[in-house]
């Protein structure tokens, strides 16, 4: 890096720390979030974030929101959209029973791998993905609908920087996609805002996907600031309602969601890519995401 490039990067991060995109109205300056993201950027974390007002579409803040980032399990939302599209108008298919096979086996997130039942209805697998980001259920559903169908659906939605790239794998070899999914904060906030407004494929499809995502038990990132019960937040709590999806991998923390409150509603996306070499680095990233969450809560409440 040249000295001029280094100076430009420091100036850019200093602008971020000062809240370059703030407004001056109460509850709208996002000072905590900007300061936290700026500190992380100066420490070498790749940061991408965006928030928009759900009613007006106004951009509340943005940080490199066009950049394509690894988003881990967030790409599973695209699979859920395709599954919901297939169920539209044909409720009987939701009871189609799918078997897990040895080739679907994978560890980490999810509970089906710990259950005795070798088969579950299609709609139940989608619910497991929404609730626990279930990797085994993801692989079984991908085998059922096909990655090509998910890609075609993604293209039909007009998404060019967001994609589900592969199955979930315990280990990624040189011939595998380097990431499970990728996405830009700009496209992801649009996707979730459109789901919330019932505009993805149809109101029925959008509502079904939102229902699955509202089960999500992972409130460890941005949503840690909202004070909700991780296991039960499908109805408003202190006039706050959340629908979100998270993605976690080595050096990756990402969250997209819609937060509704008595004053406003927002669609948001925050992604971090960092060197996960020390627990302190991970905790700093999670704290930065929480600071963004505090600003979002203040805006909607």
Automatic annotation (TrEMBL):
Residues 1-29 are annotated as: Disordered. Pfam families: Beta-lactamase2 (PF13354). It is an enzyme of class 3 (hydrolase). One of its GO terms (molecular function) is beta-lactamase activity. Residues 51-273 form the Beta-lactamase class A catalytic domain. PANTHER family: BETA-LACTAMASE, BETA-LACTAMASE-TYPE TRANSPEPTIDASE FOLD CONTAINING PROTEIN. Keywords: Hydrolase. Residues 7-25 have a biased composition (Basic and acidic residues). Gene3D superfamilies: DD-peptidase/beta-lactamase superfamily (3.40.710.10). Its EC number is 3.5.2.6. InterPro entries: Beta-lactam/transpept-like, Beta-lactam_cat, Beta-lactam_class-A. GO terms for biological process: beta-lactam antibiotic catabolic process; response to antibiotic. This is Beta-lactamase class A.
